Amino acid sequence: xxxxxxxxxxxxxxxxxxxxxxxxxxxxxxxxxxxxxxxxxxxxxxxxxxxxxxxxxxxxxxxxxxxxxxxxxxxxxxxxx
Amino acid sequence: xxxxxxxxxxxxxxxxxxxxxxxxxxxxxxxxxxxxxxxxxxxxxxxxxxxxxxxxxxxxxxxxxxxxxxxxxxxxxxxxxxxxxxxxxxxxxxxxxxxxxxxxxxxxxxxxxxxxxxxxxxxxxxxxxxxxxxxxxxxxxxxxxxxxxxxxxxxxxxxxxxxxxxxxxxxxxxxxxxxxxxxxxxxxxxxxxxxxxxxxxxxxxxxxxxxxxxxxxxxxxxxxxxxxxxxxxxxxxxxxxxxxxxxxxxxxxxxxxxxxxxxxxxxxxxxxxxxxxxxxxxxxxxxxxxxxxxxxxxxxxxxxxxxxxxxxxxxxxxxxxxxxxxxxxxxxxxxxxxxxxxxxxxxxxxxxxxxxxxxxxxxxxxxxxxxxxxxxxxxxxxxxxxxxxxxxxxxxxxxxxxxxxxxxxxxxxxxxxxxxxxxxxxxxxxxxxxxxxxxxxxxxxxxxxxxxxxxxxxxxxxxxxxxxxxxxxxxxxxxxxxxxxxxxxxxxxxxxxxxxxxxxxxxxxxxxxxxxxxxxxxxxxxxxxxxxxxxxxxxxxxxxxxxxxxxxxxxxxxxxxxxxxxxxxxxxxxxxxxxxxxxxxxxxxxxxxxxxxxxxxxxxxxxxxxxxxxxxxxxxxxxxxxxx
Lengths: 81, 628
Fold this sequence. Notes:
Chain A is an alpha+beta fold. In chain A, 21% of the residues lie in helices and 32% in strands. Chain A contains two helices and five strands, in the order E-H-E-H-E-E-E.
């Protein structure tokens, strides 16, 4: 298990009320279970719901292993401005 | 044939020099050709402009236009447009606004207003159903935007300028309520004409072609906008400011005068920060169901909050991490009456010139305490403000730094750093009015913000850009907000960006480039309607005009070519479609060759599909489009 920081952005953040969380997880896919345990608003986030970034780079592999100190961003799609 | 419905039916032409007015002929064939809005304005200007004409010539016309959907109950469709020769770019600018003037103009009985001549002194033009009056506006001259509007008839739709327009800041805007026709310096042209304000008041209601059918269309359209994840959820809750975080992720958040695409402190100046800690409530333009406007508290007053562009360009692009300052500056710039994009872009450039020792102006990245005074100095053309008031291009001509003076055709770029979305780079370069993200075709929405097509490949970007440029041209001409177009992005893909369907569509979009190019060349192929795209139904039911997607694309294509031809008449050369060298020659990320804009390659493809040579339509293309 690695200790990682997870940050949510966009409507995922507003809906989950989670801006930043410290979690322990083995792989990217495990992040979602851990985050969902912390959400108290009744919603849940799945891998399909978010664009996932690992240490600033897009992560398209749900089984990617995490290391201590990793930062994971979960971003909801946005429109224009 | 009777006139099409949905329109007020008349165009008013006023001459400020002689204080006279007359009707300007505008017939059914003109409406079929242009719909209204910016294309109507381009059509009118095309038949008027001459090669040697300049923005501050008495003979430069201001053309204020509405679209057929305005005032017909269509959602988010109260926009109006102002086109003229821009003092910033010396080519035609079209500036769009969500204020209440357009609807009021239609209620007074006019689809459009052409303003010619130059008043002898400050003037307020008052338009009603029965009369046009020219009032002395000396008492208004010098007032900020809100106090100016407070002194005008309360029920009237309004257009005013602030001190920046009066002092001919080359990127001064025209304001209607809290909304702005911001880009290209239309406010400076008002100021040059001594035109402080125009008001319109009436009670006429445009008749529609099929009332019941339009009502059903509008109901469906409103439901669609409210239920879509972007227009019904993301935009009302986060506003356009919600883009900062995805832009950071995609390396497309303009940072330190576009020298980078990421800002370490982005979270402090993000849409989430604004929503969680500063948002008082959201609001929107008249008739809008999206309600993307932020309302925030500034010095005890609840005022319009910053849009994405302002947040990005007065945040990351000048290395400022204080969102409270941005809220305040946004209000100050609005009250002074200028475009926040060009003002912020010019200041970022000046900061870099100072950093590099090319211009000792005291402006420094990250040091922002004195900026309120700098904005005032710009509006009143005092000290360094007099240089900054002329925009980045002219500043670079005086002090150097051309390769990192971030403008296209003289207009500063919006907050998207295109080395993280190369199709957006092509759009910026080719946009008719200059460095505008919307006139560009707005590919970044597909290149990482909404969809996730490959942002670095040049493949198919020309074809997709052209399709969106043409479509958005027609949507704007109809009077609709461009944000309504987001509902064409499939909701399941937006809701599930990592799903197999999303991956299939993101790859497929690029793969079908040749098919899109075919549609660009032969829009009649798309002579059909789709349930997701409501505009053709609404236009048909409002006006009685035959309409489908193919016709809209054709009208949009003609409009885009017409604007381009106007620019060529005004002296735009074959090399005008360009980007600052920083964006085409320097890698954004060291060692990552993908992170610069391969403009030449995309441009060749773009011209080929458009049927252009040397930066403009060929004679054959003009003939095909019926542009004489």
